Amino acid sequence: MDAALARAWVQAIAAAIDEHTDQLTQLDSAIGDADHGANMRRGFSACLDALADTPLETPGDVLVRTGATLISSVGGAAGPLYGSAFRAIGRALAGPDAGAEQVLSALTEGLTAVKRLGAAVPGDKTIVDAYTPAVAAFEQELWEGGGLAAAAAHAAEAAEAGARATTTMQARKGRASYLGPRSVGHQDPGATSTALIFRALAEVTVR
Amino acid sequence: MDAALARAWVQAIAAAIDEHTDQLTQLDSAIGDADHGANMRRGFSACLDALADTPLETPGDVLVRTGATLISSVGGAAGPLYGSAFRAIGRALAGPDAGAEQVLSALTEGLTAVKRLGAAVPGDKTIVDAYTPAVAAFEQELWEGGGLAAAAAHAAEAAEAGARATTTMQARKGRASYLGPRSVGHQDPGATSTALIFRALAEVTVR
Amino acid sequence: MKKFLNSPDTVLADALAGLAAAHPDLSVDLDQRIITRAHGPHRAKVGLISGGGSGHEPLHGGFVGAGMLDAACPGEVFTSPVPDQILAATRAADRGAGVVHIVKNYTGDVMNFQMAAELAGDEGIAVRTVLVDDDVAVQDSTYTAGRRGTGATVFVEKIAGAHAEEGADLDGVAEIARRVNAASRSFAVALTACTTPASGRPGFDLPDDEIEVGVGIHGEPGRRREKLAGAKEIVATAMDAILSDQPLDPADRTIVMVNGLGGTPLLELYLVFGEVSAVLADKGITVARTLVGNYVTSLEMAGVSITVCRADEQMLALWDAPVRTPALRWGC
Amino acid sequence: MKKFLNSPDTVLADALAGLAAAHPDLSVDLDQRIITRAHGPHRAKVGLISGGGSGHEPLHGGFVGAGMLDAACPGEVFTSPVPDQILAATRAADRGAGVVHIVKNYTGDVMNFQMAAELAGDEGIAVRTVLVDDDVAVQDSTYTAGRRGTGATVFVEKIAGAHAEEGADLDGVAEIARRVNAASRSFAVALTACTTPASGRPGFDLPDDEIEVGVGIHGEPGRRREKLAGAKEIVATAMDAILSDQPLDPADRTIVMVNGLGGTPLLELYLVFGEVSAVLADKGITVARTLVGNYVTSLEMAGVSITVCRADEQMLALWDAPVRTPALRWGC
Ligand SMILES: Nc1ncnc2c1ncn2[C@@H]1O[C@H](COP(=O)(O)OP(=O)(O)O)[C@@H](O)[C@H]1O
Ligand SMILES: Nc1ncnc2c1ncn2[C@@H]1O[C@H](COP(=O)(O)OP(=O)(O)O)[C@@H](O)[C@H]1O
Ligand SMILES: [Mg+2]
Ligand SMILES: [Mg+2]
Ligand SMILES: [Mg+2]
Ligand SMILES: [Mg+2]
């Protein structure tokens, strides 16, 4: 992954979020406060602006800047969580062009950042429930000899499955936890946006 | 009309209002503030209480007390208007038993009181539009040789026709006038309650 | 109908009990249904009372206190009080210097207050009646009951109250009250209807993309229906109505209220105020004092009224005078 | 969606412009999105800031002023502010004596304030964070994000604000803020959902004869749904939840708030307050101070929250201390 690919990834996320803004908001409406779509759109459109006029050399620079922009524009739970994740991913991608293995460890750093900040574990009905299986699938594919594109494709599928699997969970973190058993039966908005983020990675890596 | 008949009239009005409370309120909802039914019910149920424990000798005493009770319990436009009307009717029925002619002039006094206080003329879409034809029909029937019961029956019919005729009028008095042309197409609540009052008179005079 | 109540018949009684419990500075007579100051005034001053239907809270009970009203008499929801009640409030407010009745111009209010004023006169209490009729949505013509009294009531009660407090005589208090009314114009727009406890149903049905323009404060439909528009356009409509009725020029200083009708979030009221102040700034008119909030409501109606008063120096000074009521308080 | 707005994307910016125009006592930085006092304080004192999503007005901007907050940082509707914004508010509030962050306990608020506190620490500003978590509808367990912060925020901001004003040091202000929070419990009930500008649709569908019990202030559904009941029963449910979590005894003195969630008429809030005060009177518990009105709202949601604080002498004295903000004002 080079700086151009990192940029392409962020642009692809922005496009996906734009397309799914309403879906994310309606998911958040059912078990939260109906702002996740607007939050993510505001954040990634700010990222596009932030990246537009700056020459950045490494994928790390691009993604650290993406994380910082998310933190300073999103707010809510998603801002710090995704912001920290992208900053951590970026920090782990210092060179001009990272290989698939390095991308794996960067993604893992991102997950660690999310878990450290939010203290969620798998099963809590959060971002972590999409992110964890995505990283595992990414790793598995590399282990089986696949390249970046194949790993990303598997990660996207796993993230989507992970997001779907949140439907039957009872939330134990974030706003949805206030609903207790009533949170069951709805897919988690954050896990859903995580799936969009991995799908975007899969898309740009095959190009 | 003696005191007993006057009492019976007030009781019959109370029963009729009770039955039509919701209708009056919904009419008032369309072109006013949705309280005419509740206002009239509160007023006439207070009249029942006020009359219950008091031996009153003349129909005038009964109806003056009815008027005073309406004034002190109804509020809104209907309270002073109907209150003044019944006080005026009562004041014109001093003796123990009034003949049909005397009832006519008492009813006329009531109408005069309404018009003096409210300054409405026929066509303004108010109580006056039911009251005026009712008194005219009452007089006509007496003139044609009818008695109290027949006169009251004709008055009731005329009041009902008068109330219905308010539907096509544009209000020029009371709250409905704020609606301008939008007041057209709805029957006036006050004219409707006036028709109930005359219908009640017709009912008790035939017994 | 979804409301916090025990029974439609006891709404007013129950709410007055709560008002009494909430405000030790008020004295609430639950039998006579009048609200007076719990303390003072301990000297002769002109009494100031107002009343009208309930459902407009904090009007009028929330404006009883030092610097504003001496007593309020709330009727049933959207129903003017009865003469007995108004008379009781008049007596309570009378300290020998006479009493001013501030009456919003509605047929029922006017007639009931008039009867009470006659009764008070019979008892030797001097009464002056001041009619408030500021709503430019209604033409004052022989085809209407005259303009409605709405938002300007707050301005009249505050400014006349301060004048009474500083010792003005009966005619002086009535005179400034009339001047404030004459200098004030209001216009209101509703996004939704409201439901009275007695009716149980919304006063009108409004499609999702339409608004009622030129509404009063009794849940009635407005002068006309329009398509929902942006805040800027809606404010332009309202300000046009207000400013074409009483043109202002750059030298004028104003008191401006953006008032919620009960169901509008404060966030939106501020947004509306922003548009109002932009319109006035554009014309070079000074906004000298402001009120943004729920002051004259129509139960839970989502809507907003705008009131503009062209204020002279005396009015501004009296506006700034101390006031200590549940709903307006400053300077003490 | 029916709202007074120009575009869902500009709601906050437009409302802040209106807030700035409405209150000369506030200074509103439209770029940084922070609200500070326009005048003073002119001496070193502990700074007090709070913030959170918008849509809860008058919280928090309406509580900026002498005797209460030094600055507020409003996020987008129902979205906590971002660290930059909180940092800007922290800087504006800092007069060398440190700054207390009053944070309602929501995952997003907590994380953003924590990041801002770290950044402020890097700049040498001493920050103490006080979490408000008073809502007894949520269990504080590993199965939830902990109790939500709701109505008690007003009590914390008022009392800690007064303590800061009288010169208490950073730890002293944080300590009393924590004590007020620990002594306060809230519970809320909704009759209707609310609609955020970004979503355009109500947060939930509620049949005409059902209510949401145990709601928060972000338009989310509550803990459970119940049949609509009379005010007395609804209040009994809420007071049970509050008093079984923190039993009070007759010697206790309380500050009680009956707070409208935005779309409830004041008439009904008073009615609810009457029931609350009857419950407390029944148990011999003294209501020493009261607030009835819209203080912590959830856009136009029809609903009510009840907050009870067991107040000691110091808290009551600080409650009574002068405050001069748009939404709470007395003693000056
Ligand atoms: N502690 C946490 N750890 C990981 N993810 C979380 C946590 N809390 C909340 N989330 C995620 O954040 C999402 C909500 O984000 P958003 O709606 O933008 O913020 P907010 O909840 O503040 O309104 C949830 O759907 C969930 O996936
Ligand atoms: N000036 C008037 N003269 C005669 N009748 C009037 C006048 N104004 C109003 N009314 C009658 O009063 C009725 C409304 O009564 P009600 O609803 O009880 O009082 P309010 O209008 O104060 O709510 C109207 O339907 C109309 O018939
Ligand atoms: Mg959310
Ligand atoms: Mg009516
Ligand atoms: Mg009425
Ligand atoms: Mg949020």
What Rg of chain A do the Cα atoms give?
Answer: 16 Å
Small molecules (ligands, ions, cofactors) in the structure: adenosine-5'-diphosphate, magnesium ion
Separate helix tally of chain A = 8
Q: Structurally, how many domains make up the residues of chain C?
A: 2
* Helix proportion of chain C: 25-40%
Q: Which structural category do the helix and sheet elements of chain A fall into?
A: mainly alpha
Could you tell me the number of beta strands of chain A? Answer: 0
Head-to-tail CA distance between termini of chain A:
12 Å
Give the second-level CATH assignment, the architecture of the largest domain in chain C.
3-Layer(aba) Sandwich
What structural class do you assign from the helix and strand content of chain C?
alpha/beta
CATH topology of chain A: Serine Threonine Protein Phosphatase 5, Tetratricopeptide repeat
Keywords:
heterotetramer; A: 207 residues; globular; C: 332 residues; alpha/beta; Rossmann fold; 6-stranded mixed β-sheet; 8 helices; 32% helix; binds adenosine-5'-diphosphate; binds magnesium ion; DhaK_L_YcgS (chains A, B)
Describe this structure in words.
The complex is a heterotetramer, with two copies of chain A (207 residues) and two copies of chain C (332 residues). Chain A has 207 residues and is mainly alpha-helical. Chain A has helices spanning 3-31, 36-52, 59-73, 78-91, 100-118, 128-143, 148-165, 189-206. Chain A has one domain: DhaL domain (Serine Threonine Protein Phosphatase 5, Tetratricopeptide repeat), CATH 1.25.40.340. The longest helix of chain A has 29 residues, at 3-31. Chain A is globular. Chain C folds into two domains: 10-167, Rossmann fold, CATH 3.40.50.10440; 184-322, Dihydroxyacetone kinase, domain 2 (Hypothetical Protein Tm841, Chain: A,domain 3, 2-Layer Sandwich). Chain C is 32% helix and 23% strand. Chain C contains eight helices and 14 strands. Chain C has a six-stranded mixed β-sheet, sandwiched between helices. Chain C has a six-stranded mixed β-sheet with strand order 9-8-7-12-10-11. In chain C, strand 13 (323-324) and strand 14 (329-330) form a beta hairpin. The chains are: A mainly alpha (207), C alpha/beta (332). Bound molecules: adenosine-5'-diphosphate (2 copies) and magnesium ion (4 copies). One magnesium ion (MG) binds at residues 28, 32-33, 35-36, 76 of chain A.
